[in-house]
């Protein structure tokens, strides 16, 4: 390590910011951006308001646009509508999402580490192959994965169908490789090796602690993706009340978005139950997710 | 260089003794990358081959393995023949894709430009808000939109009634159904595109804009003569994602209008049609053939996109 001189005069003085005077065009910009933000948030606001209103007040003319006091009764209605399985279904979604996240982080970072820090025969071809698999649209996999689960493995109806196939995926490996390649110096690995660490020991004790930011990004993306996986659960027939994931159950108790006879208080309660974890997780780490997701986007 | 220092060697042997340390160093990269390849073999490559095989067969999975009937190109002919449901669904998919995709980029690009130019200080807050729709659950949010679109009691028609316009049948009129679906898709993905464009804009050096300011360029000129040309790689990437995503549209129409895609199947996208054929009617061969055709359609559209961008895409 070379010692660096103290950086006292390195950054040039910032150009003086033009004072944000009020101008007509500036007001126009704010209106444009403000409207976009407003429209982004309205559906969230409405779902929370509706979840707190008794069913009879959700659809009325003129509409109620402020919170009511029916939260607990809507919660009870939701439990009744799902034969007391709603929390179980919440847990199913959570359990699948957590397993999916943990395994994805482990296998993808391990492979990303190998592709970033090792030289080995066939490396370029193997990595190229992984990238090519990213071009397969998920839709083409729907039918054959169902058949593998149904006719070969007999896993249909089990949560395994949702988290096992994605444990090591091309996107995750790519993201990890890019990050490890640019953020970790090879000399670090060599130093650890000289100190007698095994390769796997280097991964757990040197690499893992240093790639926490990108683990957070991939972790959240994987969690959200798994939590939101509706089509997968539908195809893999997680259709018993006790094995359903939350989105599936949501569709069941609504009986279609146009069904006017549905119990809207119960439905909206479950909408909130489905969206709230996502909101919490995202708000905790939004910056990390946004910058991590777009960092690998086009730089090549 | 430390490793070049000659080490005191033991007297030469015929064969190096097998050492665990050397073995684990050699094998590590293969072991570390193998999970992907093992999983891909089981859940990727084999299924892909199987689905290609099935595309030429007639098979119901309940009949068990081996009980399939070879039908040659019949599945493909059926899908491509006289205006079959697959063609109709493909048209619907492309139409909804255009209705949601084009406005997405027309709004996202200027939005990102404005945020990047004038509202930098608020950028992270604004992008968090705009990104929220992208991470929400499609089923949950589509239900909320379904309530907004409701004919007699929905907020949207209530708003229209305030300005004296009659109720609009958002989820019933065949001409309007694609618009309603596209609205949900638009809402969910505008923010994602803004984020993509923002990160693209940040890669453009500030110097270029300063030079333009010195030369007296206004914001509009900067947008057309600097931003757009330098943003092309990101635009290509964002367009590709939109095309690939929109062509596989499933959840939004499925929840908003039901499994059949509403009355007359006005929002029956190809993904939904394939789902119905394969998982409701259990006609796996025909479903597989259509899935491959849809893959081909996505591929062709991506190539067209690629071609337009590599040719200068309208600006020289």
What are the defining features of this structure?
A: 300 residues, MetI-like fold, 68% helix, B: 316 residues, mainly alpha, two-stranded antiparallel ribbon
Shape of chain A: globular
DSSP summary, beta strand count of chain B: 2
Distance between the termini of chain B: 52 Å
Query: Can you give the helix content of chain A as a percent range?
Result: 55-70%
State which percent range the strand residues of chain A make up. Answer: under 5%
In CATH, the homologous superfamily of chain A goes by the name MetI-like
Spatial arrangement of strands, main beta sheet of chain B: 1-2
Mean of all residue-level pLDDT scores of chain A: 86
Mean pLDDT of chain B: 88
How many DSSP H or I helices of chain A? 14
Which oligomeric state applies? heterodimer
Choose one word for the global shape of chain B. globular
Largest interface here, residues on each chain?
A: A-B, 98 and 98 residues
Summarize the entry for a quick read:
Chain A is mainly α and 300 residues long. Chain A has 14 helices and no strands.
What does this structure look like?
The complex is a heterodimer of chains A (300) and B (316). The longest helix of chain A is centred in the middle third of the chain and has 32 residues, at 86-117. The model of chain A is unreliable at 1-10 (pLDDT under 50). Helix content of chain A is 68%, strand content 0%. Chain A has 300 residues and is mainly alpha-helical. In chain B, 68% of the residues lie in helices and 1% in strands. Chain B has a two-stranded antiparallel sheet. Chain B is globular. Chain B has a single domain (81-311), classed as MetI-like (MetI-like fold), CATH 1.10.3720. Chain B has helices at 20-54, 74-80, 85-118, 123-135, 138-149, 155-162, 177-202, 206-214, 219-230, 232-246, 251-257, 270-280, 284-310, and strands at residues 57-58, 69-70. Chain B is built from 13 helices and two strands; from the N terminus they run αββαααααααααααα. The interface between A and B is large, with 98 and 98 residues.
């Amino acid at each position: 390590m070379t010692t660096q001189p103290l950086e006292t005069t390195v950054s040039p003085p910032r150009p003086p910011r033009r004072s944000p005077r009020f101008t007509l065009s500036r007001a126009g910009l704010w209106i444009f951006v403000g409207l976009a933000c407003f429209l982004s948030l309205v559906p969230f606001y409405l779902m929370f308001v509706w979840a707190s209103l008794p069913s009879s007040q959700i659809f009325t003319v003129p509409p109620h646009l402020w919170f009511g006091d029916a939260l607990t009764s809507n919660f009870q209605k939701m439990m009744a509508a799902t034969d007391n399985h709603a929390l179980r279904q919440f847990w199913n979604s959570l359990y699948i999402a957590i397993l999916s996240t943990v395994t994805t982080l482990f296998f993808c970072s391990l492979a990303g580490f190998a592709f970033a820090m090792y030289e080995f025969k066939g490396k370029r071809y193997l990595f190229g192959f992984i990238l090519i698999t990213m071009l397969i649209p998920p839709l083409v996999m729907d039918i054959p994965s169902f058949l593998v689960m149904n006719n070969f493995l007999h896993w249909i109806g089990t949560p395994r169908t949702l988290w096992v196939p994605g444990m090591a995926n091309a996107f995750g490996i790519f993201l990890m490789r890019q990050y490890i390649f640019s953020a970790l110096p090879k000399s670090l690995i060599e130093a650890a090796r000289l100190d007698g660490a095994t390769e796997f020991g280097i991964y757990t004790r040197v690499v893992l602690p240093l790639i926490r930011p990108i683990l957070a990004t991939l972790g959240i993306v994987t969690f959200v993706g798994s939590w939101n996986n509706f089509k997968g659960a539908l195809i893999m027939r997680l259709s018993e009340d006790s094995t359903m994931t939350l989105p599936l159950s949501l569709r069941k108790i609504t009986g279609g978005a146009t069904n006017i006879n549905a119990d809207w208080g119960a439905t909206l309660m479950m909408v909130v139950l489905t969206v709230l974890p996502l909101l919490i997780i995202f708000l905790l780490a939004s910056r990390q997710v946004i910058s991590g997701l777009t960092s690998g986007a086009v730089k090549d | 260089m430390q490793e070049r220092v000659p080490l005191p060697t033991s007297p030469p042997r015929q064969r190096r003794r097998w050492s665990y340390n050397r073995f684990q160093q050699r094998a590590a990269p293969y072991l570390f990358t193998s999970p992907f390849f093992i999983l891909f073999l089981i859940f990727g490559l084999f299924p892909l081959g199987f689905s290609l095989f099935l595309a030429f067969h007639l098979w119901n999975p309940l009949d068990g393995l081996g009980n399939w009937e070879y039908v040659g190109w019949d599945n493909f002919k059926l899908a491509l023949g006289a205006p079959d449901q697959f063609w109709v669904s493909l048209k619907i998919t492309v139409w909804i894709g255009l209705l949601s995709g084009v406005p997405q980029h027309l709004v996202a690009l200027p939005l990102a430009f404005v945020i990047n130019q004038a509202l930098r200080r608020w950028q992270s807050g604004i992008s968090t808000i705009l990104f929220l729709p992208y991470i929400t659950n499609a089923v949950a949010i589509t239900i909320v939109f379904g309530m907004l679109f409701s004919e007699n009691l929905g907020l949207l028609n209530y708003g229209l009634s305030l300005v004296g316009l009659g109720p609009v049948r958002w989820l019933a009129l065949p001409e309007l159904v694609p618009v309603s679906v596209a609205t949900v898709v638009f809402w969910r993905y505008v923010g994602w595109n803004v984020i993509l464009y923002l990160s693209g804009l940040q890669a453009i050096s500030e110097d270029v804009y300063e030079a333009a300011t010195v030369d007296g360029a206004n914001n509009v000129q900067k947008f057309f003569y600097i931003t757009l040309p330098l943003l092309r790689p990101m635009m290509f990437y964002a367009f590709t994602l939109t095309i690939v995503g929109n062509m596989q549209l499933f959840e939004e129409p499925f929840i908003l209008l039901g499994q059949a895609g509403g009355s007359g199947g006005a929002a029956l996208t190809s993904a939904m049609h394939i789902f119905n054929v394969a998982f409701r009617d259990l006609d796996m061969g025909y479903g597989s053939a259509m899935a491959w055709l849809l893959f081909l359609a996505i591929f062709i559209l991506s190539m067209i996109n690629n071609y337009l961008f590599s040719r200068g895409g309208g600006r020289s």
